[in-house]
Amino acid sequence: MGLEFLFGNKQAEEGLTKVYKREVIVEYVNFLVAGNVPFSLALIDIDNFKYVNDTYGHIAGDKVLKEVADRIKQAVGDKGTTGRFGGDEFIVVFPDLVAYDEIWKKCRDIMTVMNGCEIHQFSGLYVTVTIGLARFPENEKSYEGLLDTADKALYRGKTKGRNCFIIYLPEKHGNIELKTEKDKSLSSMYLHSMVFRLLTKNPAAEEGIRNLFNFLSSYFMIDRLCIQKGEKILFEKTHSLSKCSEYSPIDIKKIKNNMSISNEIFYFNFIDSLTSSSQMQLAEQYTMQMVRAGFCCEIADPEEKEIIMLRAESTANRVWQYGEMDIYITVAKVIEMLLAEGKVKL
């Protein structure tokens, strides 16, 4: 079967993104494998896409998919073929392109066109991707094996912090074991259980908060965690490797005004996104504390006198993962419950 048959068919393109359908790309890959044609295969995953849909809705999700597809095609050019692998994941095949330096440059091209990708119809919605790449026949000699190695590289990119690319190298990534959905569920259950245990089982609730912040700082490798009430900083936990050792109050009134109404959170992955959305004062306040990425969740004051926020911050660009943000929201809401019951005082 020739490439003319595969790509001469208009129905081979997907309606939404105008890139090739999964089955067409799979057929193409198997065609290259059968012909023993060297090629590279890249899996490209949109970071935190579920959160985009949950927060902005599926119309925004569709806009993101179209924008990402267009940018990937722009970066790939005539050196490769782009398809949608499913959901928020794309796949790119680079025939006759397997030299490490050359494929590194193509991955870098994709990251460059994605840098600062803002969906203009939705203010403050920035999109990043993570890439995992494997090569045929260097890494594997079948479609299934190659997909598995690319997936391992992608998984490493996600655990590294996302918004990056990983080219599979057996000496570095060969021992990676991909988590099953059961493993992910168990990990989430463990973290939520830890939150409730430390906050509700300790007779001294304040000590429980401190112990929890110590645990989360280490588990997520987050620079800093604190609670800010009005102008006061409470329960400050700064990681020993943080570039900045002290918290200062920020204008949490401005944070509250820019919060997502549905889930009472505010976050940014890059400090530049605050500048581009005209939040210059917040950008200056965070920059003075060397913060590059920040997350805030409101803790309701039962007396309704002051604004209370849980703050999580990084001194490096950080793509906040949905599971991590979910834990911080849970922490804020349990503390909110303890405040309402008078079991903790802030």
In terms of DSSP E residues, the strand content is 15-25%
Number of helices: 13
What's the rounded overall pLDDT mean? 86
**Order of strands, widest sheet:** 2-3-1-6-7
User: In this structure, how is the largest beta sheet organized?
Assistant: 5 strands, mixed
User: Which structural class best describes the helix and strand composition?
Assistant: alpha+beta
Principal-axes shape call: elongated
**Cα end-to-end separation:** 70 Å
Give the tally of β-strands. Answer: 12
In angstroms, what is the radius of gyration? Answer: 23 Å
Q: How do the SSEs run, as a string of H and E?
A: HHEHHEEHEEEHEHHHEEHEHHEEH
Kindly state the percentage of residues in helix: 40-55%
Contiguous low-pLDDT stretches (5 residues minimum) are 1-5
What would you note in describing this structure?
The longest helix has 20 residues, at 181-200. This protein has helices at residues 3-7, 22-34, 49-56, 58-76, 100-114, 143-160, 170-173, 181-200, 205-220, 252-257, 271-276, 280-288, 322-340, and strands at residues 39-46, 81-86, 89-95, 117-118, 126-127, 129-136, 165-167, 224-229, 232-238, 265-268, 293-298, 308-314. The protein is built from 13 helices and 12 strands. The strands form 3 sheets. The protein has a 5-stranded mixed beta sheet, with helices on both faces. Helix 4 (58-76) runs antiparallel to helix 5 (100-114) and helix 8 (181-200) runs parallel beside helix 13 (322-340). Helix content is 46%, strand content 19%. With 346 residues, the protein is of the alpha+beta class. The model is unreliable at 1-5 (pLDDT under 50). The chain is elongated and about 70 Å long.
